Amino acid sequence: DADVTQTPRNRITKTGKRIMLECSQTKGHDRMYWYRQDPGLGLRLIYYSFDVKDINKGEISDGYSVSRQAQAKFSLSLESAIPNQTALYFCATSDPGRNTGELFFGEGSRLTVL
Amino acid sequence: AQSVTQLGSHVSVSEGALVLLRCNYSSSVPPYLFWYVQYPNQGLQLLLKYTSAATLVKGINGFEAEFKKSETSFHLTKPSAHMSDAAEYFCAATPSGTYKYIFGTGTRLKVLA
After folding, report:
1. Averaged pLDDT, A74-96
2. How far apart are CA B1 and CA B9, in angstroms?
3. Whole-number mean pLDDT of chain A?
4. In the prediction, which pLDDT does B53 show?
5. Within chain A, where are the H helices?
6. Digit-coded pLDDT (tens) for B53-76
7. What spatial distance separates the first Cα and last Cα of chain A, rounded to whole Å?
8. Which residue among B32, B36, B45 sits closest to A100, beta carbon to beta carbon?
9. Which of A56, A61, B59, B99 has its CA 20 to 30 A from that of A46?
10. In three state form, how does the secondary structure of B41-101 look?
11. Contacts with A100 from chain B: Cβ below 8 Å
12. Strand (E) or helix (H) holding A53
């Protein structure tokens, strides 16, 4: 089983619908992140959380919200989806005990907003 | 603001040829540097990382990268490309002691038979 699991892997929805992308991890890491990947733009940070009570906006948080339900779970919501939120979304974790530590990624959730 | 630049959004090489993917960072303080690989329909996985120890870093699958402070570069190389190396490669940086990982825009590597 994957250490970082994202659901759903693929989702097609319509403009104005509420969408939730879920992420769970078994790595025991406190830090969790949501990134968005668009062709030619690399990965951009949406939100990050250092523990259950600590949630922070990234560089492109407008139109998104998050919930850290437990150390292992971090969900991303689009309250009212719009077509330019069509993208590949990644959840990632890192180990705060190692500032040089890398990110561990889920397999991604591909969202299409019609 | 710190940034990571990858020169060439697409690179094609012949099987068996040298792979060179370029990455430059902008920072007054050398950050920690990473190369990640993304295969189709998969997440990113770490190839290698530089954390201020050795300047020549060896990673998985025969890849290596050299940190050059004078050139603010961290180019990725592999002596002999294999068909299985076809993927998208991302360079990333994080300033020492911070949460913030900054990604380049990616380079898609195509390996020709």
Report:
1. 94
2. 22
3. 92
4. 75
5. none
6. 788 999 999 999 999 989 999 999
7. 32
8. B32
9. B59
10. CCCEEEEEEECCCCCEEECHHHCEEEEEHHHCEEEEEECCCCHHHCEEEEEEEECCCCCCC
11. 32, 49, 51, 96
12. none
Look at residue A83 and give its three-state secondary structure. Answer: helix
pLDDT over 90 percentage in chain A? 82
Spans of chain B, pLDDT less than 50 = none
User: Are B86 and B110 within 8 A, CB to CB?
Assistant: yes
**Cβ A107–B49 below 8 Å, yes or no?**
no
Instruction: Locate B99 and state its tokens.
Output: 């949460």
Which of B102, B103, B107, B108 is the best substitution to test chain A (most A C-beta atoms within 10 A)? B103
Instruction: Please report, as a single letter, which amino acid is at residue A77.
Output: S
**DSSP one-letter string for A58-79:** -TT-TT-EEEEEETTEEEEEES
What is the distance, to the nearest Å, from the Cα of residue B94 to the centroid of all Cα atoms in its chain?
Answer: 14
Q: Does the distance separating the beta carbons of A43 and B103 come in below 8 Å?
A: yes
CB contact under 8 A, A45 and B51: no
Residue of chain A with shortest Cα separation from B6: A42
Q: Are A67 and A81 in contact (CB under 8 A)?
A: no
